[in-house]
Here is the input.
Amino acid sequence: MKSAPIATKKPLRVLLLEDNEADAALISNELQRSGMRILLAQVDSAEAFRSALRSFAPDVVISDHSLAQFDSRAALEVLREVRPTVPFIIVTGALIGAQAGAAIRAGAEDLVLKTQMRGLEASITNALAARRPLQGLTDRQIQVLKLVAEGHRTREIAKRLDLSIKTIESHRSEIMKRLRIHDVVSLVRYAIRVGLIPASLGVPIILSAFLDFV
Here is the structure.
C-alpha cells in the first residue's frame, strides 16, 4: 500500500484503487489542484483493498472500473461488507452507457471520466454531505438500517442479530429520529441513496417496506 500524505490538521482519507501509476498520479494531482486536504493511500489488488479498508479507514474510495483481477462491482461488494457507509466513486477512461448505469445501480456514488476530472471534487463533496447524517448512528443502528432496507422483517432481523423484537423496533425508531425520516419507504430510499443497498433492488424493496415488519 502506498501513502502520500498532505500536511493538514484533518485531511480527507482517500483510498485509491488503481493499478496504473500514471492514472493514479492524474487523480492525485487533480485532488491536490482542487485544494482538497487529503491523505491518499493507493492499492491495486483485492487483498490490499480489503486490508486498507480496515487499517487505513478511508472517508471515500475512488476506484478504476476494471483492474487486472478485480473490478468495481467486486470492490463495491467488499466495501459494503467492511465499511458500508463509505462512498465509492468510479474514475475510469471509458465506460459505455449500460455499464455506467449498472455501476450506479450497484451502489457507486458517481462515475467520473479521466478526461473530465474537474467533476471529482464535487462528487466527493456531495457524497460526504449525503452521508453526514449517518455519523449520528451507531454501528448496530447502521446494521439494522441496512437489514430493514433489504426488506427483512423485524422478527427476521431480531433473530439474525440475536436481539429482541422490542430492541429492533427501538433501533428502527431511533434511526428514523436521528435521520429525520418519518416512514420506512423513505428510509429505504435513503439507504439506496447512500449505497447501503444497491439500487438494483429497487421496487421489490420499496414494496416490502409497506409490510408490517413484525
DSSP finds ten helices and six strands in the chain. The two ends are 46 Å apart (CA to CA). Strands lie at 2-5, 12-17, 38-43, 60-63, 88-92, 110-113.
